[in-house]
Amino acid sequence: MINFTRYVSRGLLVLATTGFLAACHGEATTTRQAIASLPPAAQDYLLISSYFMAEGGLVSRLQDGGLSGQQVYDMALSLKYGKRMLMAALVKPSHRARHNVELAVALMVACTDQPDPTTLGGRALQRCIPEGPVAPTASPSDPQQQAATPTAGK
What is the largest CA-CA distance in the chain? Predict the structure, then answer.
């Protein structure tokens, strides 16, 4: 590994890193503003594209295997919820509906990023859907927990 401190002072290296991170943060804000200034049809196109990319990630993760039944159920639920939010945003477009699609796509990506249960070493598995319904094969610990998350398809 190259020792940068040999050629550049540490203060300058810290300053450059901080500046780079600040520029990245500023770019994210301007990107969101740039997307909001696009025509509604272009925003819908971006929503549809991001949904299908997240769906492709879910399908790839399912094909990889190594998932528990609850993980597969959560992935299917997030996929149905994402599709429902996307259709609602396309039928009645609004800022809130588009934001709901963004959140649904983020949920799909979170479900894609679940670890293989065999690598956890006996630790409890974190669910990608917070307070979501449990899989039909598992016994629900709290009946009110099933109604906490809107179920897609109903």
Answer: 63
> How far out from the chain centre does Cα 65 lie?
20
> Rounded to two decimals, what is the model's pTM?
0.63
Which residues, at least 6 apart from 138, have a Cβ–Cβ distance to it below 8 Å? 69, 70
56-86 burial, b if ≥16 CB within 10 A, otherwise e?
Answer: ebbeebeeeeebeebbbbbbbbbbebbbbbb
Q: Which residues contact 104 (CB under 8 A, 6 or more apart)?
A: 51, 78, 81, 82, 84, 85, 86
Q: How many CB atoms lie within 10 A of CB 54?
A: 22
* Phi, psi angles (nearest 5°) of residue 38: -70, 155
The closest of 8, 120, 145 to 68, measured between CA atoms, is 120
Q: Which residue has the higher pLDDT, 86 or 136?
A: 86
Q: What is the CA radius of gyration of the chain?
A: 21
